[in-house]
UniProtKB/TrEMBL annotation:
Keywords: Coiled coil, Lipoprotein, Membrane, Palmitate, Transmembrane, Transmembrane beta strand. The keyword Secreted does not apply. InterPro entries: MdtP/NodT-like, OMP_efflux. Its main location: membrane. It comes from the Bacteria. This is FusA/NodT family multidrug resistance protein. One of its GO terms (cellular component) is plasma membrane.
Length: 527
């Protein structure tokens, strides 16, 4: 009898020992499965880095020039020393890097540009588009985080009658057996509150490429704002110079009209003395009226230009006070134009084109990632009860769910492949657009440089011509008064002098605008 309890004790000890061994084996297997799953997930993450192609700026080789072409052998430094008395020395500063207030020194024009930068409607719209791009970029970053939704309170009550076709369900039979009530009755009563979360793992980089596309679009909106600002400064300056030019031309026209009136008085005196004919009076009077007609023409153009400037300033038409003397406006000193490839970082429109290429590259990455399985994880937790008094008891009413899903497209794989091929073609189109925009920008600068050089030559000739015509006008007046020249010679000299003065003012205005256009074409004005 004593030995029986002893064997029983050994058996219990053995059983207890075996029972402690089995859980350890299960835990080891579970740990192995977890490690395998983590290993597979790590391999997927490594492979995912290969989906899509990182953006690199294309090399266009000899198709994109390394220097600007102006039709002449010259260095890249723009020189307008002969037309400028400014002592500023910025020979080594690329023009595109100069802040616009250092490049445009006219104080009246600076005030107008400051007003335009605050009130211009197009610039305000560009800033709003930039804000939209910033919001979209923030959203693309938030896509990496789980989405969490709350259902704080949900109440559900279902009413049925005897002949409702759902009575055959197990729930209805469980609640009412074979004899359901004949009138409306409560079939289901539910109180619930839940918190749900869903997270899509960026296994193949889809979300990363979406973020890259959103970032490129945001940067494009910033460059668009810069482009609007650069264009606005250029347009305000050009309109301002046109106003000053018209004001100066009106003064010249009024002076010429007064001179024509003086000539008519002399011809009238000669006619009264019998030294000239009525034809001389008629032709001189016609010349006077021609000079007078030019004044309202210029004044009309001035009002139109004034209204244009007001619109750029973001306000309704009104008079603009301009006290600037056109002859006192100076051209810019020597600045370097830089090299063509600098336009990529300087010119907003070229930068916008490159960001469009970056977006197309990211879209191709998204289209490629969509061809591979997507992995999402979901979870929810909350309270659910058909009794209100038990609803807030987490022990009797609580629930928690965890789920995961892998989605692999099969039958629509052809569609996804087509979308990917289209995205690649669109990327190639964007690259061609970028190349074309860069070549266009280089041509724009080259045209501006050539225009500057030829306008300088034209301006020098116009200065020489006005000296000749002014001397001719003076001599014609003296000879006419002395009786050695007739009225036709005086009229011709006056017309020639008027034309030369208006032409000189017009060429100087073109040269001033060309300075601003060169500054804009090099990408200056947004600093």
């Amino acid at each position: 009898m004593p030995s029986k309890p002893k064997s029983t004790k050994k058996l219990k000890m053995k059983t207890s020992f075996l029972s402690t061994i089995k859980p350890n084996n299960k835990s080891k297997r579970s740990a192995g499965l977890v490690k395998s799953a983590l290993g597979i997930f790590a391999m997927i993450c490594v492979v995912s880095c290969k989906v899509g192609e990182e953006y690199t700026r294309p090399d266009f080789g000899d198709d994109v020039s390394s220097e600007f072409y102006t039709g002449e052998e010259e260095d890249e430094t723009l020189s307008v020393d002969s037309l400028n008395t400014n002592d500023v020395n910025n020979d080594t500063i690329p023009m595109s890097e100069i802040p616009w207030k250092d490049y445009i020194t006219d104080e009246t024009l600076q005030t107008l540009i400051d007003t335009a930068l605050v009130n211009n409607i197009d610039l305000q719209k560009a800033m709003k588009n930039m804000e939209i791009g910033m919001e979209e970029l923030a959203q693309s970053k938030a896509n990496f985080l789980p989405s969490i939704n709350a259902r704080p309170a949900d109440y559900r009550r279902e009413y049925y009658s005897e002949n409702y076709n759902n009575y055959g369900s197990n729930r209805a039979r469980r609640n009412h057996g074979e004899n359901p009530p004949t009138s409306f009755y409560t079939e289901r009563l539910e109180y619930s509150a839940a918190l749900q979360a869903n997270w899509e793992l960026d296994v193949w980089g889809k979300l990363r490429w979406q973020k890259e596309a959103a970032r490129a679009q945001f940067m494009k909106s910033k460059e668009f704002k810069k482009a609007v600002q650069t264009s606005l400064i250029s347009e305000v300056a050009a309109t301002y110079f046109n106003l000053v030019m018209l004001k100066s031309q009106i003064e010249v026209a009024e002076k010429n009209y007064a001179l024509s009136d003086s000539t008519l008085n002399i011809v009238q005196l000669q006619y009264d003395a019998g030294e000239s004919t009525s034809l001389a009076i008629q032709q001189t009077k016609s010349q006077k009226l021609k000079a007078k007609t030019l004044i309202p023409q210029l004044e009309r153009q001035y009002v139109i230009m004034e209204n244009k400037l007001n619109r750029l300033l973001g306000r309704s038409p009104r008079p603009i006070e301009i006290d600037t003397d056109f002859e006192q406006i100076e051209f810019q000193k020597r600045y370097t134009s830089g090299v063509p490839l600098e336009l990529i970082k300087n010119r907003p429109d070229v930068a916008m084109s490159e960001y469009e290429l970056i977006t197309a590259n990211a879209d191709a990455g998204v289209a490629n990632a969509l061809r591979y399985p997507s992995l999402s994880i979901g979870a929810s937790a909350g309270l659910n009860s058909f009794q209100l008094e038990e609803f807030l008891d987490p022990v009797s009413s609580g629930f928690a769910l965890l789920n995961g899903a892998i989605f692999q497209p099969i039958f629509n794989n052809r569609k996804l492949k087509t979308n990917y091929n289209i995205a690649l073609s669109q990327k190639e189109i964007a690259q061609l657009d970028f190349k074309d925009d860069l070549i266009t920008a280089i041509a724009d600068v080259s045209n501006s440089l050539a225009k500057m050089e030829k306008l300088k030559e034209e301006y020098a000739i116009a200065q020489e011509r006005i000296e000749v015509t002014q001397k001719g006008l003076k001599d014609a007046g003296m000879l006419f008064r002395g009786g050695y020249a007739n009225y036709l010679e005086v009229i011709t000299a006056q017309s020639d002098a008027l034309e030369s003065e208006l032409n000189l003012i017009n060429i100087k205005n073109q040269l001033l605008i060309a300075n601003v256009e060169l500054y804009r074409s090099l990408g200056g004005g947004w600093q």
